[in-house]
């Protein structure tokens, strides 16, 4: 793992309407690192991720991707993004291959895919166990399979940085195990990962560092709560140095 940051967030503030959502967030993901962004619903996790990829404007602070200010960053083929899955999205009238192939658009001009594109798409479908469903409509898949399609779409671009928003939400156990194995292979290949999670679950062994948000502020940045010991229950006092007086309560993760 290198000390070179692939994501650097400093003093980030953001609001939805008049309501502050991020209140001075500092967040770094280094090359080769797997970082988990944890917190209760409404803590600012998804807003932070959407700010990183440019979907939410900051009202203050800075964000850099691969050392470049996000506003000037253009090399989006280096970043794979998996949004939160919605049930409505599963009704898209497209095949698995078509959806996964759309992940290659950042790497090529519009036009017919080349051999490298086809190989990357096939490998991505194989990684998530859906190569045999390539010609099936996405609408015919289960929720867990649909989530695997979204992850394959992100992997098709062969990203250096993978950002995933609640990849395990509403996913059956079999798909969770496939997703964990897929992520393990990506990490072994040197991919940096930022995961938004409600709970660690089967991904816990892969996670190097956890950042816990509460009310738009970082209250813990260090070992995953489970790694602090099995007795790290509500009231644990391991906190981020900039969040004095804010005890880490692992109840945030349930």
Characterization of this structure:
With about 250 residues, the protein is α/β, with parallel strands linked by helices. The chain is built from 5 helices and 10 strands, in the order E-E-E-H-E-E-E-H-H-H-E-H-E-E-E. The protein has a 6-stranded mixed sheet, sandwiched between helices. The longest helix is centred in the C-terminal third of the chain and has 16 residues, at about 175-190. It has helices at about 45-50, 95-100, 115-125, 145-155, 175-190; strands at about 5-15, 20-30, 35-40, 60-65, 70, 80, 160-165, 190-195, 210-215, 215-220. Strand 1 and strand 2 form a beta hairpin.
Strands, helices and their partners?
Layout (H helix, E strand, L loop, with lengths): L4 E12 L2 E12 L3 E5 L6 H8 L7 E6 L2 E2 L9 E4 L13 H6 L13 H13 L15 H14 L4 E5 L7 H16 L3 E6 L11 E6 L2 E6 L32
In summary, what is this structure?
22% of the residues lie in helices and 25% in strands. The protein has helices at 45-52, 96-101, 115-127, 143-156, 173-188, and strands at 5-16, 19-30, 34-38, 60-65, 68-69, 79-82, 161-165, 192-197, 209-214, 217-222.
List its traits.
5 helices; 22% helix; 254 residues; 10 strands
Uncertain runs are: 227-254
What is the share of helical residues?
Answer: 10-25%
- Number of DSSP strand runs: 10
Strand order of the largest sheet: 6-7-8-3-9-10
